[in-house]
Design brief:
Layout lengths: L5 E3 L5 E6 L2 E3 L7 E2 L13 H4 L16 H6 L4 H12 L2 H9 L4 H17 L5 H11 L9 H11 L6 H7 L10 H4 L4 E6 L6 H11 L3 E5 L2 H13 L4 E4 L4 E2 L10 E5 L9 E6 L11 H10 L2 E8 L4 H9 L5 E5 L5 E4 L14 E4 L3 H13 L4 E4 L5 H12 L7 E4 L13 E4 L3 E5 L5 E5 L2 H8 L11 E6 L5 H8 L9 E3 L3 H10 L5 H11 L7 E3 L3 H9 L7 H8 L8 H10 L5 H12 L11 H12 L10 H20 L1 H14 L6 H10 L10
Parallel strand pairs: 5-11, 5-12, 6-9, 6-10, 7-9, 10-11, 13-20, 14-16, 14-17, 15-16, 17-20, 21-22
Antiparallel strand pairs: 1-2, 2-3, 3-4, 7-8, 18-19
Helix pairs in contact: 3-5, 5-7, 15-25, 18-21, 19-20, 20-21, 22-24, 24-25
């Protein structure tokens, strides 16, 4: 805040004093800017940036004593309004405001607030009251108002005094420096590069199991669960940590030296002998890429085994050059042969034992599974929304040579984390809904990397099929698939970044009245990123959740963690559960009363597939923030029951789908708007009636 811009000495002469970065005299019609004015740089003049700064309301204090009125008399509000309007219209005021960080948008906002304050206050600050009184009486100049206007502007826009600090905080050009623990170590980086079914992860796992301590960082909770089970079966005690679940090899009091976790849950503060970062090419993901970047730059391990596609090798080399660490590359080749068939499937009547039909939406999965089962064949179903237990049960059913289930229908979720005895992969479509850098959903052909990843699941080494086959459902897609599979994975040129909790806390210190969503917007807009290596991940889902719980009284760090939850904002049930879980005072209600009120009952012949979807969504959120739930054991029991319900529902999928169709046609069941919209967009491209 400013000191008074004028001091009346005993002789009644106005003394000139420095204020707000310039010298000002009541008798002067000019002012001299000082050299410390903030140099504008790039984004600062961006109107979209200015609109992110929300003015802090300033209200007059009715208890203030009107000393100014006692000294110079009461101000005429009508004359004051004319004076303020004249002040705002002066060209010199606009220029000087611009030099102090107030562009046209902020200037207008500040003036409106300043005018309202001056007109509504019963008692203005004495220095401002005296200056305005002198101007109205002809003893002062209208420009004398500017120091007080600037003081008010900095009060409602605190960023004006800390813009340099904000820019320094959001300088993301050297993210390696965020992790002093890792920089204080000499880390050995080993890149296991190769296609699917090449044994690259196997070799890394052998080193993990033989180490004194280790951490496995995987892309899916299913993969983390698989490593957890494998490690403990091999006699290496290993804990499991995901965003939804925590399991210990023995009990919670004895933490194991080994931990298997989803990559977002990777600790960057615990030292390990060995770390595995699986599917490193996921650094390019616009939503989750930051987690792989964080793990690679920040994990404190003497030896880091990075597993992924050849296309990520150059980027990992470049990232490690910023830390001064050497990368050893070990290349692997596929262990079994993969052949692209010369003919498309054409009809679901042509499916054979060992086939996996890959779809890119739940609607297609349900439809394909229904049609195949009407042909008298059992079907295993796997998609991303299923719990790990259900996925493993379906995989076991499909892999069991004595089980009559020999057909699988799945999404690209099979591309990672499941050992499946697939003879042939059939792409039902090559069009997949994707999210672009702006967070917008698009329909696009799958990438080379995705095609190779999914097709590579056929003919897995060690299964009954020593050769894998791949084809498409539609004949017109076959040439496109052949072209995709003949190429090398696209080189990955940039890694994702995301504001850390510590950075947002620093922002909140400087901008204490801003919401978390607003802080994220300002941070991303002001951020400086090394465009040759990094990009800023999409934050739209984060902001959506932040706005949803803004009214909930939570510490900023807890609010930040909540908003990192992988919530589907299109599902009202999930959003409701997320909002309720944000209330610590409702935690006991959730854990004590939730089961009888929300837990879906076991699907019966009279029910549809809708309860399964609700069960999946509840399962995803039942383990997050366990410390808020006093009855943790009850929540774990609920999770087991949910897993059993979902498994039973998936086994009865055809009957449930038939009931769902009846419910939809009768108007008793709602359809997910997002799924419906995507389904409608695809119809022009996908297929006609190829069921026959």
């Amino acid at each position: 805040m400013f000191n008074s811009g004028r001091i009346i000495n005993k002789l009644g002469i106005l003394n000139v004093v420095p204020m707000g970065g310039f010298t000002l005299c009541a008798q002067q019609k000019f002012r001299t800017p000082c050299v410390y004015f903030l140099q504008t740089r790039g984004k600062k003049d961006d109107p979209s940036l200015s609109s992110l700064f929300i003015p802090v309301p300033v209200k007059p204090n009715p208890d203030d004593i009107n000393v100014g009125a006692e000294l110079t008399g009461t101000l005429n509000k009508a004359d004051l309004l004319k004076l303020l309007n004249k002040f705002y219209q002066k060209r010199e005021v606009k220029l000087l405001s611009m030099e102090n960080g107030l562009d046209n948008y902020l200037l207008h906002q500040a003036y409106v607030s300043f005018r309202r304050y001056c007109l509504e206050a019963d008692a203005l600050p004495v220095d401002l009251h005296v200056v305005i009184s002198d101007i109205l009486q002809g003893a002062g100049h209208i420009d004398d108002i500017f120091p007080y206007f600037l003081r008010h502007s900095k009060h409602i826009f605190p960023h004006l005094e800390c813009m340099d600090d904000l820019k320094k905080i959001s300088d993301l050009r050297t993210p390696a420096n965020w992790y002093p623990g890792a920089r204080g170590m000499t880390r050995k980086i080993i890149f296991h590069a190769g296609p699917t079914n090449s044994g690259k992860t196997f070799h890394a796992m052998e080193r993990f199991l033989s180490a004194k301590s280790g951490v496995y960082c995987g892309p899916l909770k299913l993969l983390a669960t698989e490593v957890f089970n494998k490690s403990n079966d091999r006699g290496t005690p290993c804990d499991l940590v995901t965003g939804e679940e925590r399991k210990y090899a023995t009990n919670g009091d004895n933490i194991s030296n080994h931990v298997s976790c989803t990559v977002e849950m990777t600790s960057i503060n615990v030292p390990y002998e060995v770390a595995i970062i699986d599917e490193i090419q996921m650094m390019r993901d616009t939503g989750r890429g930051w987690a792989w970047t964080r793990a690679l730059l920040g994990v404190m391990a003497e030896e880091i085994h990075v597993c992924g596609e050849d296309g990520a090798v150059d980027l990992v080399h470049s990232l490690m050059s910023t830390t001064g660490e050497h990368v050893e590359v070990r290349k692997y080749h596929r262990l079994t042969e993969l052949k692209v068939e010369s003919k498309a499937l054409g009809s679901l009547d042509a499916v054979q034992p060992g086939d996996c039909i890959v779809c890119f939406s739940k609607n297609d999965i349900y439809n394909v599974a229904r049609v195949i089962e009407t042909r008298g064949m059992e079907v295993a179903v796997i998609y991303g929304g299923l719990p790990p237990g259900t996925k493993l049960a379906q995989a076991h059913k499909f892999n069991d040579v004595d089980n009559p289930c020999k057909i699988m229908v799945a999404t690209d979720a099979i591309g990672m984390g499941l050992n499946l005895s697939i003879r042939r992969v059939v792409f039902y479509s090559l069009i997949k809904p994707t999210v672009n850098e702006k967070g917008e959903k698009e329909m696009d052909t799958i990438s080379v990397s995705q095609a190779l990843q999914i097709a590579g699941r056929a003919g897995r080494y060690g299964t009954q099929f020593d050769t894998g086959y791949v084809t498409t459902f539609k004949p017109e897609d076959l040439s496109t698939l052949q072209s995709l599979l003949s190429q090398q994975p696209e080189p990955i040129i940039k890694a994702g970044l995301h504001p850390t909790a510590e950075q947002i806390e620093l922002y909140a210190y400087h901008l204490p009245n801003s919401t978390l969503s607003n802080l994220m917007d300002i941070f991303v807009t002001l951020s400086t990123v090394d465009d040759s290596l990094y990009f800023m991940c999409n934050i739209e889902d984060f902001k959506f959740l932040a706005d949803m719980i803004q009214h909930v009284p939570l510490p900023l760090r807890a609010r930040y963690v909540f908003c990192c939850a992988p919530i589907n904002k299109k599902m009202p049930f999930v959003c409701t559960m997320f909002l309720k879980s944000a209330y610590p005072q409702l935690a006991r209600f959730l854990s004590t009363y939730l089961q009888p009120q929300i837990l879906p009952a076991t699907p019966s012949p009279s029910q549809s597939v809708s309860p399964i979807i609700d069960s999946e969504n509840f399962f995803k959120n039942s383990y997050r923030f366990m410390d808020l739930f006093p009855e943790a054991n009850l929540v774990r029991d609920m999770q087991k029951e949910l897993d059993a319900i979902i498994q039973q529902g998936v086994f009865q999928l055809t009957r449930l789908l038939r009931n769902s169709e009846t419910a939809v046609s009768s108007g008793t069941m709602s359809v997910d708007d997002d799924e419906f919209a995507i389904h409608q967009q695809k119809q022009s491209y996908l297929r006609g009636e190829h069921w026959a």
